[in-house]
Each structure stands twice: as C-alpha cells, then as structure tokens.
Amino acid sequence: MINRSIILMNQTSLNLHHFSQLLKSCITQKNLVTGKCLHALYVKSIIPQLTYISNHFVILYSKCRNLTAARHAFEATLYPNVFSYNAIIAAYVKHGRIMIAHQLFDEMSEPDLVSYNTLIAAYAERGETRPAFRLFGRMREVGIGMDGFSMSSMITGSNDDVLLIRQLHCLGVRGGYDCYTSVNNSLVSCYSKNGFLEEAKRVFCGMNGREDEVSWNAMIVAYGQHREGLKAVELFKEMVKRGLYVDMYTLASVLTAFTSLEDRVGGLQFHGQLIKVGFNANPHVGSGLIDLYSKCGGDMFDCRKIFEEIPGPDLVLWNTMISGYSQFDELPEEALVCFQNMLRIGHRPDDCSFVCVISACSNSPSPSHGKQVHCLSLKSDIPSNRIAVNNALVSMYAKSGNLHDARRLFDRMPEHNVVSLNALIDGYSQHGAGNEALHLFNCMLEKGLTPSNITFISVLSACAHTGKVEEGQKYFDTMKCNFGIDPEPEHYSCMIDMLSRAGKLREAEQLIESMPFNPGKIGWASLLGACRKHGNIDLAIKAANQFLKIEPTNPTPYVMLANIYSDAGRWEEVAQVRKLMHDRKLRKKPGCSWIEINKRVHVFVAEDASHPMIKEVYEYLDEVLVKIKDVGYVPDVRWSTMKDAGGERDKERSGVHHSEKLAVAFGLLSTKKGEPILVGKNLRICGDCHNAIMLISAVTSREITVRDTRRFHLFKDGTCSCGDYW
Length: 726
Hints:
By secondary structure, the chain is mainly alpha-helical. Helix content is about 65%, strand content about 5%. It contains 39 helices and 6 strands.
C-alpha cells in the first residue's frame, strides 16, 4: 500500500500531508527501504526543505540503526531546532556514542528538559555518576524544572553512593517527586543493591496503592538479593492473589528468589509451571533459569539445554550463560568459547559481558586469555573508566599471579568503590602481603567507604596467611560491633584457619563448636590440615570424622588422615584407611601442575611420561637437584607418593618427580634467562617441592611463582613470599 502511494506521488505533485503520514508509517514499521524512497522523492521535489520533515527522517534512520544516514539527514536540515537536536542526540545515545551526543548537546543554544534527560539517563545507565550529576546541577542552575524521569535517572546512576541516594531521596520528597512510580522503583532497587533492605521496604510500603508491577518486581528482587527468598515468594503469591499482571520480569524475579534460597527443588517445580504457561522459551526467564541451575547444585549441561531451547538468545542470555560457566573453576575455557560464539553471531559485548568473561579468565590456566580480553575491552565501546570492568580486571590480574599489573591498573582507575578495594585486598592476601592488605583496608576506612562482608573475608584471610592472630581477632570482633556485619561461615572458616596455622588447635576446635551454624567441611578441613603439621593425631581423627559426616564420599579426609598416620609411622592404621577408601570406591584426586609457554598450556602429573619433552625435563631437573643439594637441599620423604612402600632411595626418587617440580623444570628450560615463570597446581604444594623450588629460585636466579589451591608462593633468591608460614 505504501509503495503504491509512492508511485502515485511520482506521477502527481507532492502532497505534504499525505507524505508526512507515509513517513510516520515507515517510522512505526521501521521500514527503511520505503523510507529511503520517500527521502529520495523529498530531495528531488521542488518544495523547500522543511525542518519537521527532516526531523522525521532523523528518527526513521535512528530507529533503523542507520546512524550515518541519521546524521546526514540532520546536517541537511536548514534550520535545526531543539527537536532536531534531541532526535540526533537520542540516536547517538541509542548507539552508545555518548561523547558525540554530548558534543551535539553543547552546540544547542537552549537545550530543554528532554535534552538534559536524554544525556543524564545515558550517563546514569552506564554508571558514570559524575557527568550525570554535573548535567543535573547545570539543569537546575538554568532554571529548567526536573521531572520524575530526571530524578529516577539520577537515583539509578548513583551506583553505591548511599549518601547521594539519600540526598536525592530527600530532594524528591521535598519536590513532590515521590509520587512518581519510576522514582520509587529506582529507590527500592538502589537501596536494596546497597544493602539497605529496610529502607527499600519503607519506600515500597509507602507507595500509593502499590499497583505497579514494576514496583512489586523490584521488591521481589530486593528480597532475593538479601537472601530472604521466602519473603520474595510470599510477595509473588500476594501479587497473584491481587490479580496483578505477571510478566517475564516477575517470573525472573521469583527465580532469583529460589536461587538466593539455594532451593533447587522449588526452582525445578517452578520451572515446570513455566513450561506449562509457555514462558520457558522467554530469554529473560531463561536467564533466571540458567542462573538458578548454575548456582544451585546443577551443572552446565542443564543450562546449555535451557539455552538451546530459546530462539534468538539476546545479549543478556548470552551473558548469563558466560556467567554460569564462570561459576565453575574447571570450566573457564567453556566460558571463553561461549563469549567467542556470542561475538561471532554479531552481539556487541557490554560491561556485564566483560565482567563475566574476565571472571572466568581468573580461573584459566592461561594468563594470556585475560590479557586478550582486556585488550578487547579497550577496543570496544565500553568506556575505559567503567568501574565494574576495571574491578574485574584488578581481580583477574591478582588471581593470575600478576599483582604488579593489578596494582598499576588500580592506581590508574579514576574512581574506586568497595569492590575495587576488596579485589586488591584479596590479591595482597593471596600473595602473602598481609601488611599491604591491612594498610589498604585502613585506607578504605579513611576514605569513608563502608567495608562489606567480603572485605572482612579478605582481611581475615590476610591475617591467617601471615600469622597475625591478635589483629585477626580484633578485626573479627569489630565486624559486628563497628559495622553491624554478622559473621558468616566464611568468616569463621578464616578464623579457624588462622588459629590452626598458628598451632592454636584447641582454640580452633572450641570456635568450631561455638559457631551458631554448621561449620561445614572447610572449617574441619583447615583443622585437619593443621593437625598434620602439628602432629595432633587425636584431634585429627575427630576432625576427619566430623568432615566425613558432612561429606561421606569426599576422599580428602581419608587421604589427610592416612598421611597423618604415615608421618607417625602407624602403618596398620594407614592400611585400614586405604582399605576403607577402596571398599567405598573412593580415589584421591590426582595432582597436576601446568604452565603456559607461548600461549600454550602444558600439563604435568607426577612421574609423567606423556609430555613430548619429558626426557629433557628429567635430565634438566636432575642437574638442578645436584646444584640445590650442594647448597643444603635434603629431600623430605614424608611427601613421597610411595609412603610406606620401598626404601628411602625409592621414596626420594618418587618425590623428585612431583608435578610442580616437572612444570618448573620445563618452564626454566623453555624461557629466557631471567624471565619469571608462573606454575599452577590443582592441590596444595607439598613441603618437599616448596623447599626445593625455593632453592631452585636461588641457583637459577629466577622468580618462580606457584599458585596452588590456597595461595600464591613467590620464590625469589632462595626465599618464599609465604615466609614458610603456609
């Protein structure tokens, strides 16, 4: 019909009213082909170029994602007005080109409320508080009255600045903007995200009628974020009872509640209901399902199945899939492949995409993957000062053994929040730099930032790794007294680990027994490991039994107990434990180590014979062992894989070929003189390897870093960053 009208126009004089109606139809239908025909007809016509017609062409091209044509249409406008500028600014904002949009804004003689709101919302959505706040202040200075959209955008863009949120809340109440549903929804969401659930509840309960579905969804999400999933589910039931419209956002919010409860069974039942009503193929709901399965004891096979059932997955769904893979330490490669597939089909990653894939790179055996993603983020449209991406990068570099680059990136960040400092404090803690970690924590307090529960996990871990028992106890006590943070299982685990390492085994046992909740396997495992170091067999037996009550099929307590009996020469008990493992069909997790050379990861196991250069590795290792024996190395046969079998010579030979020694030898062989090397290990480094590598660093004049499951060991000039306290 539209095409026929164009033909008739070509044959007759141009009717502006009819032409305008056709152009509006093209905008509504996003009909770019016909719109271009109309544009050509308009340019060829003898009528003067009219501003309002040109504005419509700007809108058409913008909606059809043709930014170049939109700009040409704007520049062809003889007398651009405020509407013209607003149209092209909105086009650039829509395409993520906020700097150009701001330049056009600055060209305007008298921007109106729409002009300001468009830019403020764009900055707020990107989390760039400062430019949004400057525009907000400028708007008020020139006397342009704000509206609910201005206020809600500013609240949304306030990030974790609770003081700013409260100031805006007061301003909104004083100006009467608290009657806007969008303002209240933003307040509920921001208060909740920053840990102020009671404030979020007060705003929600004070809303007139509370008949807006978005408000209910925001409150359901708030309960889910604060691990009050039962209240979220109850609120959902009340919502249904009142006859409020339930959409995909509501259902996704309920899934978030089940995830916070770690209620896989309830989530499965809800999944069944979603299938019945046909919402299971919705991308937004699918994201909630994938998040549920990946975090609540599921596996990525189920997540992949859900993903493949959704036609045309959007960017959010791809991000959730990448995030799901990043939850599993053993699946970083799959997360990277997922990210690459997302790019391949044409999706442009946003800051969430980069945060998810960078988190996965933190667990990758290949440090170069993280650097490649960092380079890609710099080349993308994501601003270099995007705080969430930078936080993820700081954490990634620290976890990849590159603390120097983590600190350098941190220092270059234009602003920091609690997450930024948490990432670096944790990095220092894992690298044994306890003093630096605690100094950074004090800097956080001086800046007026409120530490989170995660902050204290890193601080207590730093105290545990460096033997600062008194400081650790002080920080543990101040959590509740000074900051109102109730200690969680992770904090108690850090305290148990700290006391156990320091040889205060009875105090650690008493702390476990006084905990207000089940200590879990981590607490007993820490105590069990310390019992071996300090030779307390009776307490080791108790710790192992408690560990087994929690996880009867976990081979770790059996192996640790057998090692303790072996150290004491109690071979009969060793045999009993090993028989029990055999009868229950339990096997020790095989140890392996890896190193990346020229972007290729090489994996070694004890007594390895599979690597193509293994002969050269053994020969080189033997040469190095001769050198370190000359400077005092004595093999510690307690760490031999042969244990009670064979003679001392056989045990010594067995210990020589542990996976971390082989990986270090290969790294030294394959890199230039003086170049540092990084080795990863899937278990704790053994005592004999620790002593050997410490001396190897001296005789080879190399920095050798070993990342095991507990921490980083930086060996340099015959010493280790752990100070032999590990």
